[in-house]
Write a structure and sequence with these properties.
764 residues; 10 helices; alpha+beta; 5-stranded antiparallel sheet; 29 strands; 4-stranded antiparallel sheet
Length: 764
């Protein structure tokens, strides 16, 4: 089992896929493009706002730590609003002006399911009758087509409302029609974390390899969550290694993305519970249940868990609502209950995830191991919508008030994962297979006209009592979509798909795509190669590698690669560093006697640290030395409360003034980037001081539309010229040019708008 957590640092994978937005307030906007060109313009502005895995993972970790510190209360000061976006097959085709599939997708594959869409495949999933697409509110394939799904999630209702308003206005400006808006919200009070039937939801989500920390004692499980298996990341993120036997022939544009299923499932709460009472009477008349059995007892067996989330297989007699360990318990596998006497074979828990309790058609063979079903897992991100049922209410909460579950899941293969679970397990009477009588369909969410309730009679023999259940969960909308990587989002905004040609040009010649520039982590000036012969050299760090580039003075600022990529491990001072976050030169130790000192900030195990290094220049060669080993970020007084420093920008006219140098420190705390003003003194101690507390990025007019800065690169011949200094600002795969003026307030402005990093030949 791999122990690295590299996916937690991904700025390519959208944040809801493996990290999970996990917000109390959610809105999904289902969008239709009226004008493809304007839709691309809309996407170009939207792409920098999309939350990444790194942002969401950092916020969630900080939130969890704050909750633990407060004894379980949610922190009031940690808030964030996240955006995610996905596109249907037709949406991708509109944006790219080409068929996303150069050849027809393989028959039976998830790619085929994505292209056909959920409406066309509804019948095979049991969406017939009242559940059929002709009754859907969105995605029915007949009226308004869905081209995109925009997810907006926030900690507060007010912040969500503001974000939704902003996105509705942005869509209107680009002639994008909002064909449906679905709001969802975590239920309050004792219902928190539960769906409308009253049962705790979202307990059985899998762990993800390279994202979740494995347990030292049981490395196949998530640390601190016994029974929660770690699943190969390729089951959820295209391009990562999947479970054995999974589909792997994806187009290049799908890399680092995930296929999304969205369904609106209405719930008739009074009808469902009334049916439970009726079926309990039938079972008592058949003497198939204890005389003490209650409606709660039977409902728990249909679900597989009690209302609190406690598994029935461990707590067969009653719920344990005040046992916090039971409410999130996944440490069971049904091996000792193959007959389904404790947890029925038809229960929702077993039908949707059989764990290690699934026998082969030949009952004499041992059950499958849980890992054999890794390729069937999905990542659920649902939330309830509507008001909780209140029989006394004549308005919100009344019997006829709409309520239900907004079901959202991510996977690499819709057919192998979501559709298989729905059609071959949940909606299949003969699952588990080879049993007589058949177990029946899932009675919680389907119409199950023949369910086999098994019990043990007085003589010890197994008795079979037939039951029939009506359906009280109705499908009212469904969409199959794809959540692309950040790189693919930017490509779509340019009217292309990553890794595809832009089509046939004049004369029948295909034009090659420009090379893909990498996101820059940091630039470090080569100390003895600044403004030498009209050239300045820099080490450009990206991921686990570094290259040397040069930038010429003059209007064109021509750039070129001086040396190709080499791994960080070739630098003695960077041993143990997987990726550099940022570097801060020690202000009074730059090139005295040919030696320059730096603080290098990097993350290990999800926690940022820093070390002191030196680089000695001379004779065209460079040697590096680790001067002080890693220390925790808390050693910097000016960085108190900072989760991760992203980059520093020196205040141009405040460098080594009165023995002090001032910097704007851009950092990620609570999942969003903000900045503060700090100073560092000359001298052996390099005393640092917080000069001004955090402010929002929106205070910088030159950074409008940027969700986060990766790094700054000074324009070499435009520093302190006419009282202004210019910088290239790198964010994702784009960059822009800004200026900062000397003097009070340090006014900033944008000199040149965003361009792709691919316009730098040195970064290809």
């Amino acid at each position: 089992m791999a122990t690295d957590l590299r996916l937690r640092q991904s700025d390519e994978i959208q944040g809801d896929i493996v990290a999970g937005f996990k917000k109390d307030n959610v809105t999904l906007l289902f969008l239709k493009f009226e004008d493809a060109a304007r839709a691309r313009t809309w996407l170009r502005a939207l792409a920098p706002q999309i939350a990444t895995t790194r942002q969401v993972a950092d916020f969630n970790e900080a939130f969890s730590e704050a909750r633990r510190s407060s004894g379980g209360d949610d922190p009031k000061t940690l808030k964030a609003t996240w955006l995610g976006v996905s596109f249907t097959y037709e949406g991708l085709r509109q944006l790219s002006a080409t068929d996303p599939f150069e050849q027809a997708p393989p028959t039976g594959s998830g790619l085929e399911a994505f292209k056909e869409g959920s409406a066309k495949r509804a019948g095979a999933l049991g969406d017939t009758g009242d559940n059929s697409p002709e009754n859907w509110l969105f995605g029915n394939g007949r009226t308004q087509p869905v081209h995109a799904v925009l997810t907006i999630a926030s900690d507060t209702e007010a912040d969500l409302a503001a974000a939704v308003t902003a996105q509705r206005e942005s869509a209107a400006e680009s002639r994008i029609v909002i064909i449906f808006q679905q709001n969802a919200k975590t239920l309050l009070g004792s219902r928190r974390g539960k769906e409308h039937f009253g049962f705790k939801d979202g307990i059985s989500e899998p762990g993800v390899r390279f994202f979740d920390r494995p347990s030292a004692a049981r490395p196949e499980e998530v640390d601190g969550h016994p029974g929660t298996r770690i699943i190969p990341a390729g089951e959820f993120v295209v391009g990562e290694e999947p479970a054995p036997g999974s589909f792997t022939d994806f187009p290049e544009w799908a890399r680092n993305g995930s296929f999304q299923v969205v369904r609106r499932l209405s719930q008739d709460v009074p009808g469902w519970w009334s049916q439970i009472s009726v079926k309990l009477k039938e079972l008592k008349q058949a003497k198939a249940v204890p005389d003490t059995a209650t409606a709660e007892w039977l409902a728990a067996r249909l679900v597989g868990r009690w209302r609190s989330g406690a598994p029935v297989c461990k707590h067969q007699d009653r719920d344990v609502p005040f046992d916090p360990t039971a409410s999130s318990d996944n440490d069971f596998d049904f091996r000792d209950d193959l007959e389904g006497l404790a947890t029925p074979l038809f229960s929702h828990l077993r039908k949707s995830s059989p764990r290690a309790g699934l026998q082969a058609p030949n009952p004499s063979r041992p059950p499958f191991d849980a890992k054999d079903l890794d390729g069937r897992r999905i990542m659920r991100r649902g939330a309830p919508y509507g008001h909780p049922f209140d029989p006394a209410s004549e308005g919100p909460g009344g019997p006829d008030d709409p309520r239900g579950l907004l079901f959202v899941c991510y996977q690499a293969d819709i057919a192998r994962q979501f559709e298989f679970i729905q059609a071959d397990w949940i909606d299949q009477p003969d699952f588990p297979p080879g049993r007589n009588p058949q177990p029946g369909k899932d009675p919680v969410i389907t119409e199950a006209d023949s369910v086999d309730f098994e019990s043990r009679g007085p003589d010890g023999a197994i008795r079979h009592t037939p039951l029939s259940f009506q359906q009280f969960v109705q499908t009212q909308g469904s969409v199959y979509a794809f959540a692309p990587s950040v790189s693919t989002l930017r490509a779509l905004a340019d009217g292309r798909l990553t890794g595809q040609s832009q089509g046939q040009q004049g004369g029948g010649q295909q034009q090659p795509q420009p090379g893909k520039a990498y996101p820059c982590d940091e630039f470090v000036a080569v100390p003895d190669q600044q403004r030498k012969g009209g050239q300045s050299q820099y080490w450009a760090f990206h991921g686990e590698q570094c290259r040397r580039i040069s930038v010429a003075d003059g209007a064109a600022h021509t750039d070129r690669a001086v040396e190709g990529d080499s791994r960080l491990t070739t630098w003695p001072c960077l041993q143990g560093v997987g990726r550099i976050d940022c570097v801060l030169p020690m202000p009074d130790l730059q090139n005295p006697g040919g030696k320059s000192w730096y603080w290098v900030f990097h993350s290990t195990g999800g926690r940022q640290q820093y070390r002191a290094v030196s680089i000695t220049c001379g004779g065209g060669g460079y040697t590096s030395t680790l001067e002080r080993p890693d220390r925790d970020l808390t050693a910097w007084g000016s960085l108190g409360g900072v989760g991760q420093v992203n980059c520093f920008l020196p205040v141009p006219d405040q460098q080594r003034v009165g023995g002090k140098s001032w910097y704007w420190a851009f950092h990620t705390t609570g999942g969003r980037q903000v900045y503060r003003l700090i100073s560092v003194a000359d001298g052996a101690a390099h005393t640092d001081v917080l000069e001004r507390s955090d402010r929002e990025l929106t205070q910088w007019g030159s950074l409008g539309g940027i969700a986060g800065v990766d790094c700054f690169l000074p324009v070499p011949d435009c520093q302190r010229v006419g009282g202004k200094s210019e910088f290239w600002v790198f964010h994702g795969e784009d960059y822009r040019r800004i200026s900062v003026s000397d003097g009070s307030g340090h006014p900033d402005r944008q000199v040149a708008g965003d361009r792709a990093c691919s316009s730098w030949s040195s970064l290809l």
